[in-house]
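the two lines:
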Amino acid sequence: GNSVTQMEGPVTLSEEAFLTINCTYTATGYPSLFWYVQYPGEGLQLLLKATKADDKGSNKGFEATYRKETTSFHLEKGSVQVSDSAVYFCALSGLGGGADGLTFGKGTHLIIQP
Amino acid sequence: DSGVTQTPKHLITATGQRVTLRCSPRSGDLSVYWYQQSLDQGLQFLIQYYNGEERAKGNILERFSAQQFPDLHSELNLSSLELGDSALYFCASSTRGVQGGYTFGSGTRLTVV
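prediction for all of em together
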């Protein structure tokens, strides 16, 4: 079946540091890939997406490139802010077995210190 | 406001009881998905409905059931509740396919005591 693997957290960085959160996936076919962000006490919000190989999704200074050869979709940001502290989820379209829906990784808790 | 409305936001109930969680999808979205989020299991897909019909089932217990009504709102029914059912329950909606992603509601936090 489909699966998503993310780096374990928490990841703690200082403000203005460079961020990378690794995400690799296993899927049949050609899924779309997503990053969602969850702030404390809130639901998940779509951060960015890429629908085919070599596409780059970007939003709010975050970027991720769909790498089919390495089955990866790593999230990056050049200079993080305290307000970026949240839990980040990598996801892919498809639940496996042809079922519609999104398969999520376990999430990476990011903590940015001033 | 994401456009997906979940009620109630918080629910505290005793073991053995039954509760109903409600979700109104974003206007125009025909698909509704239910997820359970817990610290140890992460986000677990429970069930999907599309335009009133069950489309896919995930790790949903037999004690749990759901339905989608003609006005497209959905209800998740949890019965014979156990302490381990305490979690955040999210509803998400999408248009026909998920290539564009989901829109999530803010969730219902269920505490079973």
